[in-house]
Amino acid sequence: MINRNSYGVSHNLNPFRCRYFTVKVIKNLCNPSNSQSLIQWRDCLKEDLNELENLFYHQGNLTQVLLSDFTVKAELIVMGKQFTTLDLHNLLTFLENEKIDTIQLFAPEIIENTVVMCFSLNAFPSSLKVKLDNFAARFKLDFALMKNFPDWGKPGLVLMDMDSTTIQIECIDEIARLFGVGEQVSAVTALAMQGKIDFNESLRTRVGKLAGAPVSILKEVADNMPLMPGLLELIKGLKKSGWKVAIASGGFNYFADRLKDDHGFDMAVANTLEVVDHHLTGQVVGEIVNASVKARTLSELMERFDIPISQTVAIGDGANDLMMLQASAMGIAIHAKPIVQEKAAVSLNHLDLYGVLGILSANKGTHWH
């Protein structure tokens, strides 16, 4: 028997599939006093309902009825250390107010202590990303909004900046601090990362102040490099999924090669400090790894590993990373300078590299069980 619902969609008559969710499901989602973790909410749905697939939000209702004219125009991934049913309710209301009237919800999951949830949207207003930035900041969430994400199930390439991206420090600032010229160098570093001065000029200026520093300082800094949280888990996940991961850094190869050897990066490209008689000369040897070299490195690695552009991800935090981010299929700014956040496809402001892993590996299956 065929029945046509209020939206003019034909479907097999099935009491479960035709009904809209009410009572406990809506109460747990919409009542702030009963706000709970999305994972708890998901598990309650599993207990209350025998089957759960193809869950949609349409005109204020949750339903399993698939609208005949539903076409995916954008994909949205939202993440947070704390992500509750109240947050979800506010998000769905926000999206509805932005003229997105049908949203498909995928089962929330925990990825390395981060709650991750995916959505498909039937509209992609031009102002949506900017407005989502404000929404996410208010609720301390991170998000990624794109027409299409790279496919975790196919080989891909992640190219990462090093300083303040792969690790939590700027190595040149640490060398300068140990050599007693920290303030002079860090001030120039800050301007360079904001894009306020030419990167090549700034690097030569900063390296020049290190002339005479003993090369042993490099080992001291390398031995104490704090990794960005989530780095090891991200590399492990990438390797397991057949992805390549590399570093393109405007810093120095002493540190990039150390990270490559210790943690399994497939390649590392960075600047070379000149050393004479066990001391830094204050000069850089060879081509400076600036923004254009980073973007070129992405192209070279794509060719070397036979990776299509659609399967590329670049991650960075400074102005020197912008060309690389914009050349990839998905450029991710992590705790980045304002100019980078504004131009990157994705900005992570609350999470770290766990957030990158969440975006790439998020489940987009329709089954909630």
The helix content, as a percent range, equals 25-40%
CATH class of the largest domain: Alpha Beta
Quick one: biggest sheet?
Answer: 7 strands, antiparallel
Number of structurally distinct domains: 2
Number of strands: 16
Report the end-to-end length measured between terminal Cα atoms: 27 Å
- Tertiary shape: elongated
Task: Indicate the CATH topology of the largest domain.
Answer: Rossmann fold
Looking at CATH, the homologous superfamily of the largest domain is: HAD superfamily/HAD-like
Beta content comes to 15-25%
- Mean pLDDT across residues: 89
Taking all Cα atoms into account, the compactness measure Rg is 24 Å
How large is the count of helical segments? 15
Low-pLDDT parts are: 1-20
Briefly note the structural class of the backbone: alpha/beta
Question: How would you concisely characterize the structure shown here?
Answer:
The chain is an alpha/beta fold and 369 residues long.
Could you characterize what this model shows?
The chain has 369 residues and is of the alpha/beta class. It folds into 2 domains: 2-146, ACT domain (Alpha-Beta Plaits); 157-361, Rossmann fold. Helix content is 39%, strand content 22%. The protein is built from 15 helices and 16 strands. Strands 3, 4, 5, 6, 7, 8 and 9 form a 7-stranded antiparallel β-sheet that branches. Strands 13-12-11-10-14-15-16 form a 7-stranded mixed β-sheet, sandwiched between helices. Helix 10 (231-240) runs parallel beside helix 15. The chain is elongated. The chain starts with a strand and ends in an 8-residue tail after the last helix. The relative contact order is 0.14. Residues 1-20 have low confidence and may be disordered. It comes from Psychromonas ingrahamii (strain DSM 17664 / CCUG 51855 / 37).
